[in-house]
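Batch job 17 of 40 flagged for manual review because the log was empty.
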Amino acid sequence: MLEAGNNSELPPIPGKRYFTIGEVSDLCGVKPHVLRYWEQEFPQLKPVKRRGNRRYYQRHDVLVIRQIRSLLYEQGFTIGGARQQLSSDTAKQDVSQSQQIVHQLRVELEELLQTLKR
C-alpha cells in the first residue's frame, strides 16, 4: 500500500464502470476501512450499494477519493477542512478532476505508445 508522503504516482484508473472497494483501495492507496469512514464524513462520496450492502464505486467516486486523499495526506487538511474545501469549491473541484482525467489519459496514451513501439 502507498504511504501518505509517497503517493505522487497513483495507478491509472481502468476503463470500467464499477469498482469494488478492494480495487478502489488499490487505485487510491488507502485501506478499505478508511474508505468506509470517508463515506460517513464526505457527502460527495456515495458509492452504489447492491446485494448484501456491497459497495460499487464509479469513476467519479474514485476521482473524489483521490482528491480527498490529496487534501488530507498531501495538503494537510483536517477532515472538517477537507469537507469544507470540497463543498465550497465546486469549480475548483471540477478543474482538479479534469486535471486528473487529463493526467490519466496521458499515462494511458504513453503506455499505449510504448506497446506500439515494441
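Reviewer: the log was empty due to a logging misconfiguration, but the result itself is present. The domain at 21-117 is CATH 1.10.1660.10 (Multidrug-efflux Transporter Regulator; Chain: A; Domain 2). Unflagging and moving on to job 18.
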